[in-house]
Amino acid sequence: MVPAPADGGQPAPLPVPAAGGEDLVSQLERAARLHEQGLLSDQEFADLKQRLLNPPAIPPQRPQPGTPVSTDTGRGDNRVPALLLTGLTAFLSAGLRRRARDETGTSYSLNDGTVVEFDADGRFITPSWSDPSMGTANSVHIFPEPQVTADNPSLKDKGLPPTIEGGITFPSNPNDQMYLSRVPGPEGDNHNWYVAYTYINPRLDDPGAKDKDGWLPYALIVQDQNGYHQVTDPPAKGSGAAAAMAAGLAMWGFQRPAPGTGGGGRSDGPRVRPGPSGPPKPATITGPKGETIPAVPPGATGTTTPTGKGIEYPIPQGTAGLDAKVTSIRVMDPVSTGKYQYPNGYVVYMNNSGQTVNPLTGRTVSNADPYAHIELPPR
User: Fold this and answer.
1) Biased composition, Pro residues: where in the chain (predicted)?
2) Cα 92 from chain centre
3) What is the mean pLDDT of residues 116-137?
4) How far apart are CA 241 and CA 249, in angstroms?
């Protein structure tokens, strides 16, 4: 049973357990489900999490393997992740390989072309094409002890690894509460490495989908002195990432880039976008319910998105047909692999905090919401 809203629209308090993490995780997960179902507003959800969990903020520390820490890199956002968890094994056992090391730092190259670089002091170097304000976590909580997912009925058989270590959110979508699972780093490296898991209900994208909902890998995360950083893009929908990880494969395996290429995940110049005449600039798009929604304003000039896989255009204040909270639109590259494909690309509407929103209501939405990724038509 889930708690019914109390008088005045406030959620009924969930009892905080006297000790132990399992009941707390279950309560936080229920709160997240209520929020996802629209039974709790964003503010009610944030307040409820504060009542359930309010760990003290601890300044970021130089990472030491095996030493869990709690930190809030906040940017004014004090929300605590709704999902708290612990470690995974053998995810990168076949993968992390040192690419180079000298007085200027160290770098590693992933199979997808991403280059992960650190300076001489071990600080993560944000790629020149990425936005550090979006790729650094705004809220992280690490459990004192790993939580065994099989011991928690609400988490068992949901796609998570055997243990989970903490929870994490990012400014780009602070309502998407993700679990953290520890993975081994490259030999000789002293950073903490994790995989973040996000909850996916495929029927929200495709009502006829037969796949079960559950937790799927979202991104590879590394911790340095300045916080927790997302270093890979989410895998394509339906890419089999969860199955690959369960088999002990390194989905984000590391390799050496070809000489002189510098790796495919970093570029100091503009990125070439696909398509016969550059990226699409649709004036309008068709929404999930068939509605016509304004898209790229006439004459707008775009910039590369933080992931390097799209172009972001500003939306003028007061644009007719859009909620006032919408401040930009991202036109993203096509996705041609996996079950859920966007062969012509898709668009994402953002607010001034970099959060994904419903363009008609301005409300923040999770990645599973049909208004989060709106497919583009053929060109």
Assistant:
1) 56-66
2) 19
3) 80
4) 9
SS3 per residue for the chain: CCCCECHHHCECCCCCCCCCCHHHHHHHHHHHHHHHCCCCCHHHHHHHHHHHCCCCCCCCCCCCCCCCCCECCCCCCCCCCCCCCCCCCCCCCCCCCEEEEECCEEEEEECCCCEEEECCCCCEECCCCCCHHHHECCEEEEEEEEEEHHHCCCCCCCCCCCEEEEEEECCCCCCCCEEEEEECCCCCCCCEEEEEEEEECHHHHCCCCCCCCEEEEEEEEEEECCEEEECCCCCCCCCCHHHHHHCCCCCCCECCCCCCCCCCCCCCCCCCCCCECECCCCCEEECCCCCEEECCCCCCCCEECCCCCEEEEECCCCCCCCCCCCCEEEEECCECCCCCCECCCEEEEECCCCCEECCCCCCECCCCCCCCCEECCCC
Of 87, 271, 83, give the one whose Cα is nearest residue 161: 87
Give the tens place of pLDDT for each residue, 271-282.
333 333 456 889
R_g of the chain, CA atoms, integer Å:
21
Q: For residue range 207-237, list pLDDT tens digits in order.
A: 666 767 788 787 788 999 999 998 876 665 5
Provide the pLDDT for residue 233.
Answer: 67
d(C-alpha 254, C-alpha 114), whole Å = 9
Per-residue pLDDT tens over the stretch 173-217: 677 788 998 887 776 778 888 888 888 776 665 666 676 778 878
Domain boundaries, the chain: 1-54, 58-246, 270-379
